[in-house]
Model the fold of this input.
Amino acid sequence: MTKEFFNCRWLKILDIIYGFQIMAITIYPFIFYKNKNPKKMIKKHELGHIKQVKREGIARFSWNYCCQFFKFRFKGKTSREAHDLISYEKEAKRESI
Ligand SMILES: [Zn+2]
Done:
């Protein structure tokens, strides 16, 4: 059962860690949104990640997600670029439009 949390100001901490603005994060089965009323596109994007976890399982999803992120980081990409290149991010982005 997915549970959504809104107005999570603590996500600002992740902005500092990642070096770019995080509007929401999905930590299955929870979705945390920075704003009180996130844009529809952001909600669709995060629900896309829920769908991916349900499809692949939390272990496989988390492992693949992290491996892809670090693969791109080691290739010299910035955190933002590496994040955007992750296949799960591309898929969720496509589905949120
Ligand atoms: Zn995402």
Observations:
- The mean pLDDT is 96.
- Helices lie at 11-18, 40-56, 58-74, 79-85, 87-96.
- The beta strands are 3-5, 24-27, 30-33.
- The longest helix spans residues 40-56.
